[in-house]
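Same chain as my last thread, 415 residues:
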Amino acid sequence: MSENMTTTTTAPTENLRERALKLDAADPLAGRRALFALDDGVYLDGNSLGALPVHVPARVQDVLTRQWGELRIRSWDESGWWTAPERIGDRIAPLVGAAAGQIVVGDSTSVNVFKAVVAAVRIAGEGRDEILVDATTFPTDGYIASAAARLTGHRIVPVAPADVLAALGPRTAAVLLNHVDYRSGRLHDLPGLTAAVHAAGAVAVWDLCHSAGALPVGLDEHGVDLAVGCTYKYLNGGPGSPAYLYVAERHQAVFDSPLPGWNSHADPFGMTAGYAPADGSVRGRVGTPDIVSMLTLEAALDVWDGVSVDAVRAKSLALTDFFLECVEAYVPAGRVVSVTPAAHAERGSQVALRCAEAEPVMRRLIERGVVGDLRRPDVLRFGFTPLYVGFADAERAARILADVLAEVPAGNTVG
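reply #2:
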């Protein structure tokens, strides 16, 4: 299905349902679904908030009642609270293609974007005064990058990802890009763009919020300098779970954080007036970590034990292909248009459909148990989390979408 999608009736409903059941029966990841707290509906919003792993509440109860309630301050040492940011970072590392010792967990994505962009322009050095920012990015990234530019005396240059190559030049200090576009689900060329940024003498910063846990990233393999990401989407860390910061080992000795908190000090308990940064990824820390949320995330990451990110990617592409096929078979002509790229190399793990009646359609879908979300004014978003979404879910969601569209009066058809 493409932006010029036309519907067909060549795939009868029963055939698609039967295929979905066969695909689920052959799915090597199907057993992972039982690890999550899910109801009888179809949850397609894991690209906003991942589902709860069923074992997490008991683990959190232990954090609250034993580690905090009984051990109290002793838990910083005895329960490993103090080392949690790096320990959990090392668990995330394989999911984004990074070696141990390069990821620290803590703070929000926005705070980590700020750290990364300021550090990037400082790594780039003098004589470069431009920060290129994805003009279509999630708004906060743009806000934060603009604040970093004001702080460092740089100039923001908004640019579409497709135009980055033409915009790079001797004045470019850093480039901040989203790996997957949050609206359309378009996957950008991380290897190619990173190489181009380096060829221009600049520093590459990537936002992995919509890719980590859904597809291979290859931070080390592709020479990424700095990266940030959230953990509450495909990593299922829970609402507001802490984000993470990746600092390539080659940059750690010169990583100059704009937020030098006591937790990143070489001697945090020395309480000296002067700041001396710690070695390694610890430099990315700031203040006291949010232990309850952090250990919730640590427990949630257990669902990844024994899972290959390549297998997740294969299922993600198969799921989104199948969903698009079902939409094309079921939905009346002209009511929706896919804005998600058809090419696998350009697709993340969501499907975005432009629909003139997006708000009432999504409201009715949720009422019927198909939970996605929308981006105003006219984009329906469906996130496919391969660890717990199956092919029968995809078929059912497309079928109910068609039913809802038959009930909602058509405004301006799209095309």
